[in-house]
Structures are given as structure tokens and as C-alpha cells.
Amino acid sequence: MSDSQRFPVAAHALAYLAHKGAYDPGHAAASAVLAASVPTNPVVIRRVTALLAKAGLIATRPGASGGSWLLRRPEDIRLDEVLKAVNGCAHLGSPPAGAKGCPIGEHIPRQVGKVLTLADQAASDALAKITIADLLADNAPALAGVVIHGSCSEAIRAAEAAPA
């Protein structure tokens, strides 16, 4: 699974567990059930749930009668915690090293690194205001006014096609 899919899969899995009332081992959701909801492979779910368990957001039990359940209420699980658990940060990339002896090559990587740090902090700050409960709510205040847009590549293509 690519790094870019860990966070969406983790958020989906946590929302599913909350929706199904999986708050104890007796109500645990099997990885195959979570995988069917995403949809993805159960192995992908097990990798993500292992990271979520390591972060203390869920507990898991292996085996045929195993599964995952929440350790906290959905309104107490912030999405910045989820991102940190599965990705560490937004990770928009790393600046290239730059060429030695080139004034731009020696300067720009440091500046791009600062920009990436700012972007990561902005993403974390935005996600800190949203909980798993917000994902389940039809009219969550934390998501009010947010308009879903296409992928970045679609936006770039549209901008390139627009008359100058």
C-alpha cells in the first residue's frame, strides 16, 4: 500500500469501528469486514490497524475470532493523531540535495524544507480540529463549507487548458 493511502484507509477503518459500536473485544470487527467496507485487501487493513494499535487508538486480537475495536470514543480521536500514527506527518516530499557550488542549489533545498515543514504543520493544525465523530456526522461543524475537489493532477490539467 502506498503511503498516500494509509491515512484515508485508517480514517475509514476508525469510522467504521465507531459506526458499528466496536468498543470492546466482544464487538471487534474482523479485518475482512473492514477491508470490504474500504474496499481493500485484509492484509492492508491489518498493516494499518497494527499502526493504529501501536498508537493506542485501537486494540486488536489476532486469529479467526480476532478483530479490532476502538480504545477511545470517536469524538476523542483527532485526525492529526491518525495521520501521525500511520504516516508520521503529511510528508509532501523531501527537497533535493542541490548542487555544491551553485548558489541556488545550496540555498533552495533549505528553503523548500522550510516550506514543507510549514505545509505539514498546516495540515496537522487543520486535522487537529476534526474527529472521527465528525466523519460520521452529516453536518459536522468542523467540515462545514468544505467543498470536495478533484485530484491535484485534474486541477493542474484544468489550469493548463485554460486560456491565458
From TrEMBL:
Do you know which InterPro entries this protein is assigned to? Tscrpt_reg_Rrf2, WH-like_DNA-bd_sf, WH_DNA-bd_sf
- GO annotations of cellular component type: cytosol
Pfam families per the record? Rrf2
Q: Which Gene3D superfamilies does this UniProt record tie to the protein?
A: Winged helix-like DNA-binding domain superfamily/Winged helix DNA-binding domain
Q: Which SUPFAM superfamilies match?
A: Winged helix' DNA-binding domain
List membrane-spanning regions.
none
Q: Which GO terms describe its molecular function?
A: DNA-binding transcription factor activity
Q: Which domain of life is it from?
A: Bacteria
Q: Which PANTHER family match?
A: HTH-TYPE TRANSCRIPTIONAL REGULATOR YWGB-RELATED, WINGED HELIX-TURN-HELIX TRANSCRIPTIONAL REGULATOR, RRF2 FAMILY
UniProt-recorded name of the protein: Rrf2 family transcriptional regulator
Species assigned in the record = Brevundimonas subvibrioides
